[in-house]
Amino acid sequence: MESYFDKKRDFEAVIFDLDGVIFDSESKVVECWKVIAAKYGIEGIEDACRQCLGLNKDATRQRMKQIFGEDFPYDERKAESSALFHSRYSGGRLPLKPGIEHLLIRLKENGKKIAVASSSRKEYVVGNLTEVGLSGYFDRIICGDMVKNSKPHPEIYLTACDAINVLPEKAYAIEDSFNGIRSAVGAGIKTIMVPDRVQPDREIESLTEVVLDSLENVEEYLSLG
């Protein structure tokens, strides 16, 4: 019986989310938020962070205030959390997800276009990719502060496809968050989920083409040889 890993895939590009897909960063963000939460007695911060996965900074601020109340000093607490994050993980110390560089190499060898569609700010995205020597693999990098609408809106993925001149149906997206998957699927892109902090529910399983355990499995699934 033929495995789906044996099927030849027809695609021209792969578009990557960043946090939780390229970088093992989402757990580090939560780690820093938990320090700040302990300092100020904020309860439920881990669940709040989970609800914000895939959102840009404005949507994250809105969600946090919905959770903790309009008087929650989000900007101040976020600034403290970000400062702690950068003190621990800037300068190329943010860990990569296993298999990412080899996957990027194989995509390039197979003539595929590669882009990033991240809800994070351009300065953060480009800075971290540059620090670990991966920025040169990407044909275009589209970030949350370059589009109007946050994931789960499809704008960021449509923008990425347009930037690399590839039709959405000829691209794959690799995502780890529910909001990211909804965004990519809404854009008409075949979507692979590689779970990081959350496992798929029935809705997400129905939206994705496949759920894979690792980026090494993505390489095999896409038949990159």
List keywords for this structure.
alpha/beta; Rossmann fold; 225 residues; 6-stranded parallel sheet; globular
General description of the model:
This protein has 225 residues and is an alpha/beta fold. The chain folds into two domains: 4-24 and 95-221, HAD superfamily/HAD-like (Rossmann fold, 3-Layer(aba) Sandwich); 26-89. It has ten helices and six strands, in the order βαααααβαβαβαβαβα. It has helices spanning 26-40, 45-51, 57-68, 74-89, 100-109, 122-131, 155-163, 178-186, 202-207, 215-221, and strands at residues 13-16, 113-118, 140-143, 171-175, 190-193, 210-211. Helix 1 crosses helix 4 (74-89) and helix 5 packs parallel to helix 10.
What is the end-to-end distance? 20 Å
Number of domains: 2
Strand content: 5-15%
Structural class: alpha/beta
DSSP summary: helix tally:
10
Global morphology: globular
> What's the number of extended β-strand segments?
6
Relative helix content: 40-55%
- CATH architectural type of the largest domain: 3-Layer(aba) Sandwich
Text of the CATH class of the largest domain: Alpha Beta
Largest sheet: 6 strands, parallel
- Gyration radius (Cα, Å) is 17 Å
What strand line-up does the widest sheet have? 3-2-1-4-5-6
Arithmetic mean pLDDT: 95
Within CATH, the superfamily of the largest domain carries the name: HAD superfamily/HAD-like
Give the SSE string. Answer: EHHHHHEHEHEHEHEH
Poorly predicted regions: none
CATH topology of the largest domain: Rossmann fold
